[in-house]
Amino acid sequence: MDKLILNVDHLTAYYDDLIALKDISITVKEGEIVAVIGANGSGKTTLLRSIIGLHTQKDGSITFNNELIKDLPSYKIVSMGIAYVMSEQALFPELTVEQNLRVGVITINKKEEIKKAFENVYSLFPILYQRKNQIAQSLSGGEQKMLAIAKALMMNPSLLLLDEPSLGLAPVIVSKVMEKLLEINKEGVALLLVDQNVQQALRISKHAYVLENGKIVKHGESSSLINDPLVKKAYLGR
């Protein structure tokens, strides 16, 4: 039986008097890809920010590897093995590719671990090795997205949270990014993927949750949801 690493149990998140998420329960198993789909404003980003500790107005329970993390600060959650790739590029535009990656291991003191981290991300993203001395803002949109993902991977997480990794990218680049996510997953990293590109998100994930107005309205195997009439009508344009 696959080990459960993330358990979000009856999470309610709010902004003062506004409820953004209501009674949300999701799980992610070790090495699994789970997608959360929904329209703009459905609460997807709030869900990820709640898990990583950036959104603090919340009730319920969030555990990672059986440890309660709901009230921990973000830096402690990251140190436990969760990394977060935001929808906006969390890069230092004036720094080089390699300098941006080095920021990802700023808390690691062992040279061997840092060297291994660079080897891993350059192996996964050869284009970043070719561009390692270029400043980040000179990269294409797809390369910047890959750099943001690589920067998160420098801490060797066991769970990667991804907020709209396909946002603003051309379809051919989206496909390349999704293939990279599959490669990351094959290395044993579990993914919790939030994306408006429903077709791609359901294609690469095993399980999925449909979020509407802060509530889960459907969940199940991604292969069944991609053929669900309501999902097709609402999100796939069919």
Descriptive labels:
238 residues; alpha/beta; 6-stranded mixed beta sheet; 4-stranded antiparallel beta sheet; globular
Spatial arrangement of strands, main beta sheet: 6-7-8-3-9-10
**Over the alpha carbons, how many angstroms does the gyration radius reach?**
17 Å
Q: Can you summarize the main beta sheet? A: 6 strands, mixed
Low confidence ranges: none
Assign the structural class, choosing from mainly alpha, mainly beta, alpha/beta, alpha+beta, or little secondary structure: alpha/beta
Give the name of the CATH superfamily of the domain at 1-81 and 190-238.
P-loop containing nucleotide triphosphate hydrolases
- Write the H/E string, N to C: EEEHEEHEHHHHEHEHEEHH
Average pLDDT across residues? Answer: 92
Count of runs of 4 or more consecutive helical residues: 10
Quickly give the CATH architecture of the domain at 1-81 and 190-238: 3-Layer(aba) Sandwich
| CATH class descriptor of the domain at 1-81 and 190-238 | Alpha Beta
Strand content: 25-35%
Measured between the Cα atoms of the first and last residue, the distance is 36 Å
Helix content: 25-40%
The general outline is: globular
Strand runs, count:
10
Could you name the CATH topology of the domain at 1-81 and 190-238?
Rossmann fold
